[in-house]
Design brief:
- By secondary structure, the protein is an alpha/beta fold.
- About 40% of the residues lie in helices and about 15% in strands.
- It is built from 27 helices and 36 strands.
- It has an 8-stranded mixed beta sheet with strand order 4-3-5-2-6-7-1-8, with helices on both faces. Strands 9-16-13-10-12-11 form a 6-stranded parallel beta sheet, sandwiched between helices.
- The longest helix has about 30 residues.
- It is elongated, with a radius of gyration of 48 Å.
Length: about 850
């Protein structure tokens, strides 16, 4: 039956049953409405939020099929040709008397100062042909009985219990909680703190686009975060898995003044805790900064009783505005919109943004002059009714509407103008505030593009606007997640609780330690290093997790080490350290002899179990034995002979010194004259060559043997420079010469190459022979020495050390021309060691003779 209230000239009417299903949150009212909608041949439900309409649209599509269900909101219209079930926002509910079922959700919003007049109009006049259902709070009951006396009021109890638990610090808030704040700054502050010590939170605010809010809610519902920080927008129909609601404040700015929430508003928000049969709790936040004005928020005992028992003051009036004004002129339109309500239960609302824009533009002569005739006034009012998504106030919004009207008064908005406006907003870069501003702007264009009488190519422009809103919403969701969610901390808190052993730890190929693909640190060899970006509060948990799980991970890595040691791949020896893939795994220590070092496993491998550790040690020992078996085999034989008593003390001492010298020993220090023929034969049998200046083992002078012996020598504290890879001489430069080398003036040359040069010099000497008892002088070609990289000075110094003497060439005769003659050389055998001049009688370093000797040593031969 239609309402007898005046002010409605035409609308949806029906003779069906009217039911008012009233009760607190979590009573299944919306679920009941969906069931009744699907039970009828057609119907519509009006919701307070676009995202709620979209959520129920998806549910009904799953039941009835997408080709028979429509979604109608100010910014989005999905209207299949044969749609019979409509899900709408309250403002977009169509006037169709043929619908069998009509429902209005959250009908108590009729008392909202901003949108209440829309809900009041739907409550009074929108009816289904067979059944009408009004859903709302129990506080609406007196108004329903007074204004819709034909309605059958049905009360529904809450499925679960809602209990007050007092104040808690933010660090003590349990998981699956929602923290409610009443400003964007406070929401951000709460979310930042939760990120630091709880891993982060999802964020829900009215300023977010529906898609972004859905993405944030989905992240919370999926358990990616355990906390939700929201404004009071959470209280309007969002079905969430919330166990506890914590109020960061109990007052808000309602657009006109800062005021305390009513108990009904508190209950609407607190009622998000507990769903279906699960009980919920609510309370406040304690601690500095949680409340406003420096004080922590606190519920009064009366408020706690009212919320727990669902007892609130009944509504005494609903806001009303003429829903179908006359469009004869702007003055008539404004007069009708400001006309007083027809019943004492109805009240005039505060001036809404659409009426404020209408009055502001009507006062501008240039704009008012363009609005003539009923159709023009009606079209102008539709433009003024454009929602202020950007929330920039009546003045700024009026300028935007005035620009639109310049085109709308002539017909349609230019396609290029709309396309350019949409394209200008298609920029997903920027921070959270920037993206929110762009989303608000694109929502305005989405609304505009949905109007079939405003935009040419409506479907194309609407699709473009939706695509841009989707991209911006995805970017905003990513920025919110990046700023307010620490996925690693969230994962740790969710997976472990107090027991770090529950963490599913694994190791990737790069050595990163992962918990469900979230890096918590990495392995440097066998040492676990916590991610430096981890919070200090996380480190204890991370280290505990590593302590419990790393032995198993390290065991796998140890098996790879043992395998590589067996194949000699990736194992290196440098500076007395054994490395594996660039990681030090063991060090050499002094053993029984220089050639028999001990292996000390690196302390990082102490986490391995004893059998695994022993296996690694054995594998490295085998590798070292194999690695040094061939290069050092000659020296091992010499060392074995040096320990044999049958060799005699003189030969044993010589052999042991030869081993300590890396297979090289100066001949002057060898005492060869004290060896008998048997011992000399033993030297030859061991592969030891006696040269002009040195005793040496040729096979010990190979690069691999010298490098390995140098590494072992450092363990014993014997300093030798690293031997070069090639055979070229090296510059001494005041450093220790490499093993296997001997000095040659400013250079050092390998002893076997030095012996080769001296043998060549003796062959030249022998070819010159001796005549009449006189030693003949001869010339030496330095080409071979130069090919080895030895300078003239180095070659001369080497020759002098072997007993060769240089004689300067005769100068050219007066007036003669030609190249200078080369120096001549002769040779005298070095005197035995015991016949040499004692060190004590040598020239003092500061004497003139010493200076002369230094000058001769530095003077290049052959100049």
């Amino acid at each position: 039956m239609a309402s007898p209230l005046p002010g409605r000239r035409h609308g949806t009417a029906g003779d069906g049953v009217v039911k008012a299903v009233l009760g607190p949150t979590n009573t299944g009212k919306t679920h009941l409405a969906i069931e009744r909608l699907c039970a009828h041949s057609s119907g519509a439900i009006g919701f307070p939020l676009r995202l709620l309409a979209r959520e129920v649209y998806d549910r009904v599509c799953a039941i009835k099929g997408a080709d028979r269900v429509a979604l109608i909101t100010g910014e989005e219209r999905i209207e299949p040709k044969d749609a019979r079930w409509l899900l709408c926002t309250a403002e977009a509910m169509p006037s169709r008397p043929d619908l069998a079922f009509v429902a209005l959700d959250e009908a108590q919003l009729s008392a909202d100062p901003e949108r209440g007049h829309v809900f009041t109009d739907r409550l009074l006049h929108t009816r289904g042909r067979e059944e009408t259902m009004l859903l709302g709070s129990a506080t609406l009951e007196p108004m329903v009985r007074a204004l819709v006396p034909e309605a059958d009021v049905i009360g529904r109890p809450r499925f679960s219990t809602l209990s007050h638990v007092g104040a808690k610090k933010l660090s003590r808030i349990p998981p699956r909680s929602a923290i409610v704040a009443f400003s964007a700054e406070q929401v951000y502050a709460m979310a930042e703190m939760l990120r630091r010590f709880r891993g982060g939170a999802a964020v829900v605010m009215g300023a977010l686009s529906p898609q972004t809010r859905n993405a944030q809610v989905a992240m919370y519902q999926a358990g990616e975060v355990d906390y939700l920080v929201a404004t009071d927008a959470i209280g309007m129909g969002l079905n969430l898995d919330v166990h506890h609601v914590a109020f960061a404040g109990l007052s808000k700015f309602d657009g006109h003044r800062q005021r305390r929430l009513t108990t009904a508003e508190m209950a609407q928000i607190a009622g998000r805790a507990g769903r279906h049969q699960r009980d919920g709790t609510f309370g406040t936040l304690a601690g500095t900064g949680a409340g406003t004005g420096g004080h922590d928020p606190e519920f009064t005992p009366e408020e706690v009783f009212a919320i727990e028992e669902h007892r609130f003051p009944p509504l005494t009036r609903l806001f009303w505005r003429e829903a179908e004004p006359r469009f004869d002129s702007l003055a008539t339109l404004i007069a009708d919109l400001e006309s007083p309500p027809p019943r004492p239960e109805l009240a005039t609302p505060p001036q809404a943004i659409d009426l404020a824009v209408l009055k502001r533009l009507a006062e501008e002569p240039d704009t008012a002059a363009t609005v003539r005739g009923r159709r023009s006034v009606q079209r102008f009012w539709a433009a003024c009714s454009l929602p202020d998504f950007r929330q920039q106030g009546a003045e700024t919004h009026a300028r935007f509407v005035a620009r639109l009207w310049q085109d709308l008064r002539h017909g349609y908005l230019g396609a290029d103008y709309v396309a350019q406006a949409i394209a200008a907003l298609d920029n997903p870069s920027g921070d959270i505030d920037t993206l929110q501003g762009r989303i608000a702007a694109i929502r305005s264009w989405s609304y505009i593009a949905q109007r079939p009488d405003w935009v040419l190519a409506r479907d194309e422009m609407a699709a473009r606007a939706r695509a841009v809103e989707t991209r911006l919403s995805d970017a905003l969701h990513a920025r919110l997640t990046e700023r307010f969610v620490n996925r690693r901390t969230t994962l740790l808190m969710r997976k472990t609780g107090a027991d770090a052993a529950l963490l599913p730890v694994r190791l990737d190929e790069a050595g990163a330690v992962l918990v469900d693909d979230e890096a918590i640190g990495h392995l440097e060899g066998f040492r676990f290093v916590v991610d430096p970006l981890a919070r200090a509060a996380d480190r204890k948990l991370l280290l505990a997790a590593a302590e419990r799980h790393l032995p198993g991970l390290l065991g796998t890595r140890a098996q790879a080490l043992v395998r590589d040691a067996g194949t000699a791949e990736g194992i290196t020896l440098a500076d007395g350290a054994l490395g594996w893939n660039g990681i030090t795994v063991a060090r050499l220590e002094k053993g029984r002899t220089l050639l028999e070092p001990r292996i000390r496993i690196d302390a990082a491998l102490d986490r391995l179990s004893s059998p695994v550790r022993q296996g690694v040690e054995a594998a490295l020992g085998e590798w070292l034995a194999r690695h040094g078996e061939k290069p050092l085999e000659p020296l091992r034989k010499i060392a074995e002979a040096g320990r044999d008593p049958a060799s005699g003390p003189t030969l044993r001492a010589l052999l042991l010194q030869l081993v300590e010298g890396g297979g090289v020993m100066a001949r002057a220090e060898a005492g060869l004259e004290r060896l008998d023929d048997r011992q000399r034969a033993a030297l030859r049998g061991l592969g030891i060559r006696v040269g002009a200046l040195d005793l040496y083992v040729p096979s010990a002078l190979r690069p691999a043997a010298m490098t390995l012996w140098s590494a072992l020598a450092r363990v014993w504290g014997l300093d030798h420079d690293t031997p070069p890879d090639a055979m070229q001489p090296v510059i001494r430069g005041g450093r220790e010469i490499p093993v296997g080398y001997r000095t040659a003036g400013p250079q050092a040359i390998r002893v076997d190459l030095a012996e080769k040069l001296l043998q060549a010099a003796h062959r030249v000497r022998g070819a010159g022979g001796a005549a009449g008892g006189r030693t003949r002088r001869f010339a030496l070609d330095p080409a071979l020495a130069r090919s080895m990289g030895l300078t003239t000075a180095g070659y001369a110094a080497l020759l002098r050390a072997a007993g060769f003497r240089a004689w300067p060439p005769r100068p050219l005769a007066a007036g003669a021309a030609g190249p200078p003659a080369p120096p001549l050389w002769d040779w005298r055998p070095p005197r035995p060691r015991e016949e040499r001049r004692p060190e004590a009688v040598r020239a003092r370093p500061d004497s003139a003779f010493a200076a002369l000797a230094q000058w001769m040593a530095a003077e290049p031969v052959g100049r």
